[in-house]
Amino acid sequence: MRPTPALLARSFFGRSLDEFKRLSRIAINQEGLRTPTAAFPLITFDDPSAIQDCKKFSDADTGGFSKVQLDFVPAQGDQPGHAHFHGKISTELPRNRPEIQRTGYAAWRTLDRPPTVFGRSLWDIDPYTYLALRIKSDGRKYFVNVQTESIVPTDIHQHRLYARRPGDWETVLIKWHEFVRTNHGVVVEPQGEMLRQKVRTVGIGLTDRIPGDFSLRIKRMWATNGLTEEDRREDGRLDLPAGEKKEEIRSRSKGDTPAPL
């Protein structure tokens, strides 16, 4: 069944109206003139529809044998609704494909957001210091991936996702300026600044090339200038100041070169 032109028009103009409201709110509240205190949501997995806004991929797309799933898990008890990124990594090379010399990866990312009357929908996270993630990790070597409206469309900004408490829910903060620009897994020089006014997608990949099962649970990802009291209570940080505490925020990867995606 195909959507009618009327339905498409309502969807397009509905998105345009939402964008107009957002831009008007920024102008009225003068958000560009002061540091925002409210969080800026990027992706929240609180219902199954959020999964449809993402795509998953792995080396199986080019003949490899890794398996990847991105499933919605409803809230139950004290466990929140979330996305479950899981599967099995294989480094086996495909037969009769000599051009494929490297396998063993899996990833997911958000889809490009639909356009509005104002043009392509992009996130402006420039007023924010951190990318925040609420996750439950198995401790494997995951990377956070960010795509911007770059001159080179295959550029990806990457940062290691450090889990302080594998097996438990936790909130991880990563400074936006610490992401490393890569292209097909190779660090690009000169680095330059991330185009933070025009962020297209965010996602997470596993590229440690260690065969076996993997499991990462994600509740949400958002831009922020620090954890709110509610965030700190959720993460058991009420004894910490609201600002950054360097020994607590373990999100450093200057000496850790991102692996290929």
Summarize the main sheet: 7 strands, antiparallel
Overall shape: it is: globular
Reading the helices and strands in chain order gives HEEEEEEEEEEEEEH
Supply the number of helical segments: 2
Describe this structure in words.
The strands form two sheets. A seven-stranded antiparallel β-sheet has the order 2-5-12-7-8-10-11, with no helix packed on it. Strands 1, 3, 4, 6, 9 and 13 form a six-stranded antiparallel β-sheet that branches. The two termini are 35 Å apart. The chain is mainly beta and 261 residues long. The longest helix is centred in the first third of the chain and has 25 residues, at 5-29. Residues 5-10, 18-23 and 240-261 have low confidence and may be disordered. It is globular, with a radius of gyration of 19 Å. The chain contains two helices and 13 strands, in the order H-E-E-E-E-E-E-E-E-E-E-E-E-E-H.
What's the quick description here?
The protein has helices at residues 5-29, 229-234, and strands at 40-44, 54-58, 67-73, 82-89, 106-110, 130-137, 142-148, 155-160, 169-175, 180-183, 186-187, 199-206, 212-224.
Give the helices and strands, then pairings.
Layout: H1 5-29, E1 40-44, E2 54-58, E3 67-73, E4 82-89, E5 106-110, E6 130-137, E7 142-148, E8 155-160, E9 169-175, E10 180-183, E11 186-187, E12 199-206, E13 212-224, H2 229-234
Antiparallel strand pairs: 1-13, 2-5, 3-4, 4-13, 5-12, 6-9, 6-13, 7-8, 7-12, 8-10, 10-11
